[in-house]
Amino acid sequence: MSKVATRFAPSPTGALHIGGVRTALFNWLYSKNQKGTFHLRIEDTDKERSKEEHKIQIIKSLNWLGIKHDGEEYIQSTKIDNHVKIANELLKNGYAYKCYCSPEEIEEQKKRARQKKIPYIYNRKWRDAEEKDAPKEIKPVIRFKSKIEGSSILKDLVQGDVEIENNTIEDFVILRNDGTPTYNLSATVDDHEMGMTHIIRGDDHKINTFKQMQIYQAMKWDVPAFAHIPLIHTIEGKKLSKRDNASTLDDYSKIGIIPDALRNYLLRLGWSYQDKEIFTLEESIKYFNLEGIGKSPSKLDMGRILSMNEHYIKNINENELFKQLIDYSKIYKKEIKTDKTEKIKKSLTFLKNKAKTLEDIINNAQYLTIDEVEFNKEDFKLIDEKAKKIISTFINKLTDIKKFNKETLEPIINELIKSYETNFKGVGQPLRIALTGSKFGPGIYDIIISLEKEEVLKRLTNKKLA
């Protein structure tokens, strides 16, 4: 058998949808597992809605996730002549025919089907009609002459054998009356030209596959293997659409989901290998197979994505985490000043502790990146007279400290708790508000040590606290 070749074929009519991303991932992993090639075909024949910026975004999104295609992108709109040529060949060989039905006639047939509550199937009026009877004023479409007798079996690599009665497949249009090819013709011709051996896509394409198989057979081309993946649903069990929140890749990168974490999540969304949850990129390629894909729809679970991301944030190399954090801050947040980045790098060990996203780390680190503390109005009200005395005493004690660490700070905090007959919160909270502007944030020792002595004294002697 020839070397495995798979493809992902998005339309550049909008941002890349999360379902499409998973399809691309499964195609890429399967081809890499089989030492084959993975190709990107841009289906840009919808001239009005296709945009170059969407194509760029699709490629960028896939690269962000680590999915890189082999060779050049295959641009469908440059191959139209070839699609038309095949349509005419099918016509010449008796596998297609010209249909002269007017739009009104087709609409009437659809209306009748709706009234009877049955699926619309074209009535094949022109299938065996004579060309001489054709109306001169109507430009015909070309329809494929689908099989009427018997049944067809799709040997699906995920769903198993799927059988369908041939008479339920309509004589579908392959060339519109303006001479442009339709999806089923273009996709089949392109897949053949590209030498695709495996077509892995969503199971909403199953009926298209039966139509495309007939084109392959009519052209005497080798039929590729097909695998249909169940769709992704919302947590409520509805089909996920582009209108849903968190349906595009940008929705995830914006909140600071790490590419490795999202890729790992999507890999496990409808696929499993033993009871393994966390996969490195190398392991993903090594273990991926089509047998591990489930037959039921998967539910997109934001809580699970955040949990997976939290795992990666806590476990990846801190230098790599820091690099991703800085890249993220440049794209989505105000860029962190160079003189502040070193403080963040030193403090990553505790900043990442309560973080589920890169955005959380940026928020947790905000007190390190500001030049002047801005107080939360409600929290500032907690700085009462007793709190001011605690801060003042802490300043005096701090002045004598030479080494700045938890061992030297802890006795001071404990002494303050005792002197002012309070608890740890009674001392920690006023200090946290004074140093960060908020009662929420990292542990007080982490805040003090990361700011360093000079900055701590500067912030605690703020005139607003007097």
In short:
The chain has 466 residues and is mainly alpha-helical.
What does this structure look like?
The structure is a single chain. It contains 19 helices and twelve strands. The protein has helices at 18-33, 52-64, 80-92, 103-116, 183-193, 206-219, 249-254, 259-268, 281-287, 302-315, 318-332, 338-351, 358-364, 366-369, 377-380, 385-399, 406-419, 424-436, 444-460, and strands spanning 5-8, 37-42, 74-75, 96-99, 141-144, 151-156, 160-165, 173-175, 198-202, 225-229, 232-233, 298-299. The strands form five sheets. Strands 1-2-3 form a three-stranded parallel β-sheet, with helices on one face. α17 (406-419) packs across α18 (424-436) and α18 (424-436) crosses α19 (444-460). It is elongated, with a radius of gyration of 31 Å. The mean pLDDT is 93.
Count the beta strands: 12
Query: What percent strand?
Result: 5-15%
Query: How many helices in DSSP terms?
Result: 19
Strand arrangement, major sheet: 1-2-3
Q: Label the overall shape.
A: elongated
Average per-residue pLDDT, rounded, comes to 93
Task: Give the structural class.
Answer: mainly alpha
Radius of gyration: 31 Å
CA distance, first residue to last residue: 81 Å
Estimated helix fraction = 40-55%
Largest sheet: 3 strands, parallel
Uncertain stretches of 5 or more adjacent residues: none
Which helices and strands appear, and what pairs or packs with what?
Blueprint lengths: L4 E4 L9 H16 L3 E6 L9 H13 L9 E2 L4 H13 L3 E4 L3 H14 L24 E4 L6 E6 L3 E6 L7 E3 L7 H11 L4 E5 L3 H14 L5 E5 L2 E2 L15 H6 L4 H10 L12 H7 L10 E2 L2 H14 L2 H15 L5 H14 L6 H7 L1 H4 L7 H4 L4 H15 L6 H14 L4 H13 L7 H17 L6
Parallel strand pairs: 1-2, 2-3, 9-10, 11-12
Antiparallel strand pairs: 4-5, 5-8, 6-7
Helix pairs in contact: 1-9, 3-5, 5-6, 8-10, 11-12, 11-13, 16-17, 16-18, 17-18, 18-19
